[in-house]
UniProtKB/TrEMBL annotation, chains A, B:
<keyword id="KW-0804">Transcription</keyword>
<dbReference type="InterPro" id="IPR010982">
    <property type="entry name" value="Lambda_DNA-bd_dom_sf"/>
</dbReference>
<keyword id="KW-0805">Transcription regulation</keyword>
<dbReference type="Pfam" id="PF13377">
    <property type="entry name" value="Peripla_BP_3"/>
</dbReference>
<protein>
    <submittedName>
        <fullName>Transcriptional regulator, LacI family</fullName>
    </submittedName>
</protein>
<feature type="compositionally biased region" description="Basic and acidic residues">
    <location>
        <begin position="7"/>
        <end position="24"/>
    </location>
</feature>
<dbReference type="GO" id="GO:0003700">
    <property type="term" value="F:DNA-binding transcription factor activity"/>
</dbReference>
<feature type="domain" description="HTH lacI-type">
    <location>
        <begin position="18"/>
        <end position="72"/>
    </location>
</feature>
<dbReference type="Pfam" id="PF00356">
    <property type="entry name" value="LacI"/>
</dbReference>
<feature type="region of interest" description="Disordered">
    <location>
        <begin position="1"/>
        <end position="24"/>
    </location>
</feature>
<dbReference type="InterPro" id="IPR028082">
    <property type="entry name" value="Peripla_BP_I"/>
</dbReference>
<dbReference type="InterPro" id="IPR000843">
    <property type="entry name" value="HTH_LacI"/>
</dbReference>
<dbReference type="GO" id="GO:0000976">
    <property type="term" value="F:transcription cis-regulatory region binding"/>
</dbReference>
<keyword id="KW-0238">DNA-binding</keyword>
<dbReference type="InterPro" id="IPR046335">
    <property type="entry name" value="LacI/GalR-like_sensor"/>
</dbReference>
Length: 353, 353
């Protein structure tokens, strides 16, 4: 790893080392231009940047700075944009990502898009403008112009929380669809036939879409009609999970198992079931997804899918290190997500309520 | 709000408007120096900055840019550094902060210091180097050099999550000590005399220190010896809360009420009590602090202190807007924190276990 001192350290160089002014003179540009090259190369024309770089190399300017770091305008700051900082859905992954970055002296700056594509686009621009060397993004769903912007600005990025081999982008994650199918199989194995799904808005959320599809896959594989699946779409929150469960308990026929798009919704559903005097899992089974900490502290503990939070964060860091160094990061990485059986899932009740 | 176009827009100015070179000539400095004033005023001496600013004002340079924005090198990016992104302790406050910023077109970048003063210092430097216009920080505890750095770089900041009128810094928060005293009063009112505290490391955490002190205040006010208080210091996590509770249940005499420094520790303590076959609150009362969402979803729900998460976030944004505009933000803001009584607190058991 090339250590990149900041500009103030440059001024501590001995008098025999070339200065900004010397580089400017050799490159035939103003010192302001050299300075711009150091701070914001994207606003400098390619021709000018090349002139400055050539001068830097020729004169051995700021040997600690490294011509490559200059060209790459390395700031040792990485960015991550997650859909939410609430409910710790992405917190453990981010923590592992940050720990890996810190070992390389890299600072992590995080933005939270509130699941808004417009806000995420602004944040991508802002992080790049602020000099982020590389970005971690969640899921593939975003306008193509975001990808072309990153391509144009040559900012390496990794997509996490998803794995689907053929998207043509470097990703690290798990197969959301397959994982939800496995969980739905466990539900169906216990005799449940009237199922419901509480999911996030699936439009701009490939993870939610794939999880929903995995449930449909499991039903179809057993000859069940996916049209019988009751679905509520709502934003991830405990309160929304509670409200959705109440709504579902008033549908006829009443579901015997409610599968939730994540643990946050499931925790809300569980709380609401208790408020309504329903026994979980006696009257109703509830499942989550993610295996964040609340999955274990609610009563009964949630059956859920354990997502490889820490390995995604750590692995994303490794991929970005390689990309930033100009190396081939290799293919996208698929990690395992595993079904965790806990007490919120039980056999289907004998009698219809 | 003055809209601040970026520098590239300056180049679209008509030919009759003064240019960087003209300002440099008038100020008697190089264009590099003017440029530095625009990008990184803190590395320019006060005298030079004044010369450049005078020239800018006299010539009406970049009328859309605004001399004040120039002095403040506005990027429309604010930073926040929180001790942790896990467990949603700061998530709701950050969310409200971000919403207020977004209304002004400001992007929020967040860093998480893992309760490490060294890491926080790096992050302060990184956010300032990346051009953050203003910073939100949690609590007062940090090396003086962090404050002098921010002062020197003229980056406005607000301290949140604490209120203590006389620190000489603009803060918005609540009185952690008073809030914990109120909660401890509620515990003592129910006859508990053998108390325990599970707290975060109090060395670099003024909130934890003040909460601990509030409990001591309540004991002292009733003539109880604070030396009888059993204390476990541990990092905030559910697992650590569980472990600390187990440890406390093996002390003699066994506490009848365990007060936790936050809801995360309390959720862990509650889970562990259940594992040990203890009835909460029949055998043991447990309290939290913060009133984050898990406080309501655990069984029994946690008695805790409701912290004004959203109002702190929103209010911090208002203070920073004022400071960035060069206005007097007024005195520090004290918000209310209120005791929320839920089922995890009950009367002290009649018989000693």
């Amino acid at each position: 790893m090339v250590k990149v001192p900041n500009r103030r350290q440059d001024s501590r160089q001995g008098s025999d080392t070339p200065k900004l002014e010397d580089v400017a003179a050799r490159a035939g540009v103003s010192t302001a231009t050299v300075s711009r090259c150091l701070n914001n190369p994207a606003v400098v024309s390619d021709a000018t940047r090349k002139k400055v770089l050539d001068a830097v190399r020729a004169m051995g300017y700021a040997p600690n700075f490294g011509a490559q770091a200059l060209a790459a305008r390395r700031t040792n700051t990485f960015g991550a944009i997650v859909p939410t900082m609430e409910n710790a859905i992405f917190a453990r992954g981010l923590q592992a990502f940050q720990e890996a970055l810190r070992q390389q002296g890299i600072t992590l700056l995080v933005a939270s898009s509130s699941y808004s594509p417009e806000l995420e686009e602004q944040q991508i621009h802002s992080l790049v403008a602020r000099g982020a060397d590389a970005l971690l993004l969640i899921g593939h769903d975003r306008p193509p112009k975001c990808y072309s912007f990153l391509q144009k600005r040559q900012v390496p990025y990794v997509i996490a929380w998803v794995y689907d081999g053929d998207e043509g982008r470097v990703s690290i994650g798990f197969d959301n669809r397959k994982a939800m199918k496995s969980l739905a199989d466990a539900v169906l194995d216990r005799g449940h036939r009237r199922l419901a799904l509480i999911t996030a808005d699936r439009r701009n959320n490939d993870r939610a879409r794939q999880r929903s599809q995995g449930l449909v896959d499991a039903m179809t594989a057993r000859g069940l009609d996916p049209e019988t699946l009751a679905v509520v779409e709502t934003a991830y929150s405990i309160a929304n999970g509670a409200q959705a469960l109440e709504q579902l308990m008033h549908t006829t026929p009443r579901p015997t198992a409610v599968m939730c798009g994540n643990d946050v919704l499931a925790a809300g559903a569980l709380t609401q079931a208790r408020k309504m005097g329903l026994d979980v899992p006696g009257d109703l089974s509830i499942t989550g997804f993610d295996d964040i900490e609340i999955a274990e502290i609610v009563t009964p503990a949630l059956t859920t899918v354990h997502v490889p939070h820490r390995n995604m964060g750590k692995g994303a860091a490794s991929l970005l290190f390689a990309m930033r160094a100009g190396e081939d990061p290799g293919p996208s990485v698929e990690l395992e997500a595993t079904v965790i059986l806990r007490d919120s899932l039980g056999p289907a009740p004998d009698r219809a309520p």
